[in-house]
Amino acid sequence: MQAENSNERIILGIDPGTTVMGYGVIKEVKKQVEMLTLGVVKLDHLDDHPLKLQRIFEKTVALIDQYHPDCLAIEAPFYGKNIQVMLKLGRAQGVAMAAALSRNIPIFEYAPRKIKQSITGNGNATKEQVAAMLQTLLKFTETPQFLDATDGLAVAVCHSFQRVGSAGQSKSYSGWAAFVKDNGKRLANITIKDKESLK
Predict the structure, then answer these.
(1) Which of 34, 63, 161, 162 has the fewest C-beta atoms under 10 angstroms from its C-beta?
(2) Considering 15, 28, 70, 151, which one is annotated as catalytic?
């Protein structure tokens, strides 16, 4: 495992859920970021809530053991009116975090709006817009079956964007404009269509 200020690290991103859990793993080498994998864990066929939590824990541990990430970036449950849904999402997030803690992996939490803002420059972007921008940034062509997979990937990329700066040093960006200023070359391949979809 590399230190957080290392020039190279692997980030596991998770979008927790009790119906579908999305995940993505990226490798960051200085300013370059590449996708290692993304996918989902389907849980909707399970009726027992504790069993769902067990699957989330086991899959998170399996991903950690396979890819040896340096940190876990996880999406915070959004505020909603349905208390039961909030409770279940909180449990799902907590179990994924516990899995990381069981392997001594540092955890970073991001609000959904922060993730969307980091990826697209728009905190109200749709899942489709986030997925399209990730395909452009990470240069992958396959379309994930579930947008929850790109949501998990987005959390990992969001965490990467918080520290990627000159000479691999930690750097936070106050907004999209500041990131674009430092990373113009990374965004040069975005098409007009991509730009229009993010407005």
Answers:
(1) 34
(2) 15
